[in-house]
């Protein structure tokens, strides 16, 4: 077999001639396998294509029984071909039949062939099929031969992606590229959105794959690498990393990879097989992506993102700007597809045309999720390999309620979701009719419903929902969407505007809750073993008092003559609250000394989200003017279960005995001290959870604007007294059920309460 690097150029030129010939798709494919077999001196060459049902179908062969074409199929993972498809790795064997995965198909007549070399047909890291060569004699395939076949497989991938084989598909056996995909991820923002995919960072379209002059292509690659390195170096050395929105440590990682000799040598080697520079970059990154996507180590997966970014930079340098839509020129019914996004990037898009967001990353408490909920845009995160699976223009359905994404759905699925969207719209209309109705239970208990906010755009939801105020204004979002640290004047301007829109309704401003997963692009990122338990929120404020004092100063000035409420996040001890209160009082004293008007009243509260505070409840309830429960973090810390970790996030239910007893303790101790208490975490915005909280004695809730209608509909049908009696009985029972959710759901059904 002569598959040396020099021979690859001959093979690619012959493949290009076959691709350009005016023949039918099947004849083209038949000629291709003959050319490949002849060039690699193999007795067999076969192409298997992945179908929409995830099986592999024999599409063409030279050497095996041609009557088996389009008849022989196998599941992913079945046989040697299925093994290659499932693992996305080449497989070279000198004695194929002795391999434990070997699967004999009598219709093919392959029993006489001992040697086997197969490579995955990859595009964007996604497997599209398998390309195989076989020989009668036992032999060891060289690295050059594997390389040559992989390069050929890339040509096959582009032919499949371009739709060149669609005409060969039998009814019900559509090629996998166009197959419908149902992916389950994590809900970021509720709602149902139907539309067509728009890539946040469009892949660069590569139209020229085969090189005329490999030497010239190496020069182009070297020049692009040098340009990319220079751009990264300049970006770091200019000192204006904040303006780019990229963290300095990320750029340093880019710089490290940009000088990684192994990665760069691999691209040079692929160019020498006969591909253009841009095709070589795409080929190497597709191979790398396929391998790393099958890794479970989060560090390795993070490195994949770095390499993806570098590859995209190289491709843009080689072929120029990608042909994606501009953010201002978003088409109608757009579903935005991205690996990850910051809140500022989402705000750049025309929200009138945006119907949904699909991310490879991002959890329900990430800042992108918070912004998506604020804008009422359905969003789903943790959809693996979304940017590779979804092509620009693909039909996509985002089900933010179920945390599911339908890619290229069948007509019946699309119609079902259209019905679901219409039903949701009718429900929303019913909720809007409740806008003027009082939030009072069936037995006359008044409930206060407020909204969560964090941007000025959120404030329009006050009128939309007729909420009684803003129970949680996340001030950190202003810092996250800015390209630099907001000045005191800029902060004051936002708080002034918020209070003006609130028009007398109360607003509770939470001081900066940064750290953990909320990293500001212009601040140094600290590597911590457990960032959620690390240096964040009030801990940063107390350690960097100038930062906290500047924000408090802006809040007090904005609240001049008004009632002002400020809440401190992540307080773990009463002492932390007392230290922060001293700082706030100093700022009040400064206002007086400077002759500036002060707020008409100031209430300083605490967000109860650290379990240690549960053991100082009497003291904190006496010292603080109000309490607000952050159920997201409180339950996460209470159960030591990371809410972003799918393996443990559903392991413990906040409606279990332990969680409910903790919440009952808080409301009872707050009541003894006559300290107002509000629930502002996710529990307060879910009807069945809110039912339980009302039964525990809570009377004030703050939630996303979209949750106000469903919660109000629930509580207006609820007999709070009856619910309390039942819940008390269940909680005092010796039967320690893992969760009271089923009992609460049965109670809701009994009382005809919509949950």
From TrEMBL:
<keyword id="KW-0418">Kinase</keyword>
<dbReference type="InterPro" id="IPR050499">
    <property type="entry name" value="PEP-utilizing_PTS_enzyme"/>
</dbReference>
<keyword id="KW-0813">Transport</keyword>
<dbReference type="Pfam" id="PF05524">
    <property type="entry name" value="PEP-utilisers_N"/>
</dbReference>
<dbReference type="GO" id="GO:0016301">
    <property type="term" value="F:kinase activity"/>
</dbReference>
<dbReference type="GO" id="GO:0005737">
    <property type="term" value="C:cytoplasm"/>
</dbReference>
<comment type="similarity">
    <text>Belongs to the PEP-utilizing enzyme family.</text>
</comment>
<keyword id="KW-0479">Metal-binding</keyword>
<feature type="domain" description="GAF">
    <location>
        <begin position="24"/>
        <end position="170"/>
    </location>
</feature>
<dbReference type="InterPro" id="IPR023151">
    <property type="entry name" value="PEP_util_CS"/>
</dbReference>
<dbReference type="InterPro" id="IPR006318">
    <property type="entry name" value="PTS_EI-like"/>
</dbReference>
<dbReference type="Pfam" id="PF02896">
    <property type="entry name" value="PEP-utilizers_C"/>
</dbReference>
<dbReference type="Pfam" id="PF01590">
    <property type="entry name" value="GAF"/>
</dbReference>
<keyword id="KW-0808">Transferase</keyword>
<dbReference type="GO" id="GO:0008965">
    <property type="term" value="F:phosphoenolpyruvate-protein phosphotransferase activity"/>
</dbReference>
<keyword id="KW-0963">Cytoplasm</keyword>
<dbReference type="GO" id="GO:0046872">
    <property type="term" value="F:metal ion binding"/>
</dbReference>
<protein>
    <recommendedName>
        <fullName>phosphoenolpyruvate--protein phosphotransferase</fullName>
        <ecNumber>2.7.3.9</ecNumber>
    </recommendedName>
</protein>
<dbReference type="InterPro" id="IPR029016">
    <property type="entry name" value="GAF-like_dom_sf"/>
</dbReference>
<keyword id="KW-0598">Phosphotransferase system</keyword>
<dbReference type="InterPro" id="IPR008731">
    <property type="entry name" value="PTS_EIN"/>
</dbReference>
<dbReference type="InterPro" id="IPR008279">
    <property type="entry name" value="PEP-util_enz_mobile_dom"/>
</dbReference>
<dbReference type="Pfam" id="PF00391">
    <property type="entry name" value="PEP-utilizers"/>
</dbReference>
<keyword id="KW-0460">Magnesium</keyword>
<dbReference type="InterPro" id="IPR036618">
    <property type="entry name" value="PtsI_HPr-bd_sf"/>
</dbReference>
<dbReference type="InterPro" id="IPR000121">
    <property type="entry name" value="PEP_util_C"/>
</dbReference>
<dbReference type="GO" id="GO:0009401">
    <property type="term" value="P:phosphoenolpyruvate-dependent sugar phosphotransferase system"/>
</dbReference>
<dbReference type="InterPro" id="IPR003018">
    <property type="entry name" value="GAF"/>
</dbReference>
<keyword id="KW-0762">Sugar transport</keyword>
<dbReference type="InterPro" id="IPR036637">
    <property type="entry name" value="Phosphohistidine_dom_sf"/>
</dbReference>
<dbReference type="InterPro" id="IPR015813">
    <property type="entry name" value="Pyrv/PenolPyrv_kinase-like_dom"/>
</dbReference>
<dbReference type="InterPro" id="IPR040442">
    <property type="entry name" value="Pyrv_kinase-like_dom_sf"/>
</dbReference>
